[in-house]
Amino acid sequence: MANWIPLWVHKLSSPPNFYRFAGALRPWALVLALLLGAIALYGGLVLAPADYQQGDAYRIIFIHVPCAWMGLFIYGVMAVASFITLVWRIKLAEVVAMESAPIGAAFTFITLVTGSLWGKPMWGTWWTWDARLTSELVLLFLYLGVIGLYHSFEDRRQGARAAAFLAIIGIINVPIVHFSVNWWNTLHQGSTIRILGPSKISGDMLWPLLTMMVATKCYYVASLFGRVRTDLLAMESGKDWVRQIAESAQEGRR
Amino acid sequence: MRGRMSSPRLSTACAAVLRRDLTLAWRRRGDIVMPVLYALIVVTLFPFALGPEEALLQRIAGGVVLVTMLLAMLLALDAMFRGDIEDGSLEQLMLSPQPLALMLGTKILAHWITTALPLIVIAPLLAAMLHLPTAVMPVLLYALLLATPLLSLLGAVLVALTAGTRRSGMLLALMLLPLCVPVVIFAAGAVAAAQQGLPWLAPIAWLGAALVMALVLAPLACAAALRIALDA
Amino acid sequence: MTSLSATAPVLLEARALSFHRQDEPVFGPLDFSLHAGEVALVEGNNGSGKTTLLRILAGLLHLDEGELRWRGQPWRRTEHLGDTLFLGHHLGLKADLSARENLAVAAGLYGTRAGRDVPGVLADIGLAGYEDEPVRRLSAGQKKRAALARLLLLPGTLWLLDEPYANLDRTGIELVNRLLAMHATEGGAALVTSHGAVSFLDGEPTRVRMHA
Question: CB contact, 8 Å: A162 with chain C?
Fold first, then answer.
């Protein structure tokens, strides 16, 4: 471990410490996610005015846009954790990277589905080869590749390191894909309706959107921590701290 | 230090690896023909599926030939390191006193010569079957000459990552798809632009730039990936 | 040989070497040292980690815990490439190439020992007359000999031989012992694994015991 990493990071990254920390934080994150999500949905679906062009159809952006954003954000988190995995071989980073992938894939999938639902009233078709949607589709494939590679190894840690390498190749690839898909769209003159163009968004629409973004982040934290805790228990099942947890759980049941 | 002092020159080592892989491919000439045959079959099926209308075939010719090449290469990609891992040759290569990235680069070159080059040779035939105008043919060849080594290099990194796993052709396709999207876009885009009478140099130049980058980075990434995948 | 090792310099030194796979200990902690001119037998039951140990020493596996020193310096994978020869379960021979062609590739990568060449080595190893036969047509013992020929041809101070006696008849076993003795007198060292009793060299070799 490099010297410049602060001591608390080092301490937190030890599996038993993180297990306890994540366990304490997870319920709060979950409650916050549900609360903020409910507020944002109320604000977006009830309080915000209908769009003068799209009517009520636009309201799907309160799901679609935060999810799209999370798809990219989680990929970023995964790439950073992957980098740490490869350079310092920290077990926690491996687990964070690999457990982020399914969550990110789920958000990206929701983005594609909501985008397609939105496309029907907007463009009159379920799917259009719009630059953004196409990039999201490629992002989903990147996630699936990482998940697939991780599970194809018998040794989990080795699989995590291989998949981490793929995740880093992927993050170099994302801007290239976006650029090439944009170029491809101009060449083929497809339907290029801008979804989130420079059109002004009113404050009544903005605050539910931002609230939902915070809610999805909280949900990610809660979901990730739950998954990481399970994984840590499985990976460290031979260690003393896991045995202690198992024993105390048994006593509690008695 | 005896071993280090007398370790052979880089060019000797590269030549040894290249000669070995080409000899092996030549001894199994039947395997070289398979991707070519596959590409021929796929291209033959298109007119049957879409009808022999010349204008339609002409419009899709460039894209069909490119995607067919890609799939044919994908078919052969899995074998790039498989044999070497199974008989232990890869271990001997990794332990030799030579830079692994360069040795792998040589192997990728050999693989490109034995799988992609035959495909490029029959590409004009495939394109002619779909009535691609003769004037566009050179652009298709430029695009293929740049796109196929790019795919070999990118594919090699991914094959190296799956080296420690059981046979995984489908996984490889899943992993390669996001990486080859830009390659297909620019290669097919160049052909499409040439067909429409638009300038086609820009996408070709992008492919060239990407190839130069990949030539430098992919062998290094391939070596790193192989070390990760084989370290148990 | 044993008398020589007392004065000869230490080539390889391992302290508290241990290895885990998925947090299950495979072997260790293990301590041993290997002098120039010394041949050591790695002993242990199936699954005791003999192969793993050799793969770590070759640089094919990542070292978990413990310290390794090579010629007194901390061991680094890149430093002794080419100075270590590894013979594993997979022999590293291309089945479609002849023994001669296989050796030529190895020589191109590793170089050759002074005064040795491919035809001479093949004759020495007992493959005369089979030089141009594709390896796939050789018997298991002949394949092993073709792989052993690499040891004779290539330079390298440390030999890591995983089960070199497997598949060999009595003359083959004598051949391995002859190679090891020759290597030791030239100042090299070797680690040899074997799971069965074998007529190993003359006298009492150094033993590295794996805790199974």
Answer: no
